[in-house]
Amino acid sequence: MTNPVTADGAPQSAILFLHAQTSLHPGSGTALGVVDLPIQRERHTQWPVVPGSSIKGVLRDACRRRPSNRDQLFAAFGPETAEADKHAGAISVTDARILAFPVRSLRGVFSWTTCMSVLERFNRDAALAQLAQIKLPVRPAKDQAVCTSNSPLLVDGERIVLEEFEFKSVTDPRGLSDQLAQRIFQASDATTPEAFRQRLVVLHDDDFTHFVRHATEIVARIGLNAETKTVKQGALFYQEFLPSETILYALVFANASRREGNSAQAASMLDYLRSELPDVLQIGSDETTGKGLCAVRLLDGKEGA
Question: How many domains does the chain have?
Fold first, then answer.
């Protein structure tokens, strides 16, 4: 599949990587258990997801805050609400899907975990975005963990212990962690790519799903009565967060401008987004408490991935 980046008017595509620097709460708004404010998840996999509408709103707000041409802003993301019926924006964003999930480790502090189903879906999405696919590692069996031969997570050279579970290590000969590190992280990040290369672990689908369901952060939140210093009635609740270091990705598509008087082609729309995109975005709720800070990278075929 070729990338038609030079064709005038042809739709353009890219992948937006999100690397959580602080814990992230993409809320579902529905309490189904003991957690009052759970994160949003895919129904069929129970893997975490960030709605594309939320990401697009954050991107629009980030572009609005920077000194830019408002005509380009409206062409990319659509007009203000009062004129929403005039035209659609040129930029489309999918839901952000999980790529790597951090899990506590007996050795090496923590690992980034993923699984073959996640990686296969990433390859499918990369093809949809006209980007090169990654070479997949050997498929781990139940209770196996695929990692690099020099991983700091190894115990006695042959075991990895994540949370309370022990896995037999299997060496990855295809350099998966290096392929992903080259794609995910910003060029200005001098330390994280190497840490990722050493700490990435590929688990069996069932083992990975267990961690993303049960190894998130659950935080008790309270509101105090200013006079009695006791909890206000109904002001004690539990909130779920994706931990810092979580890595997600979303697909970004650009079409030619639909705005009257603006003839920008799809490539120009994607270039506009790239030029206005900051290094860090804040996604999800609890913005005033520093939650949801994510390092971002927009990757397309021009970078040769």
Answer: 1
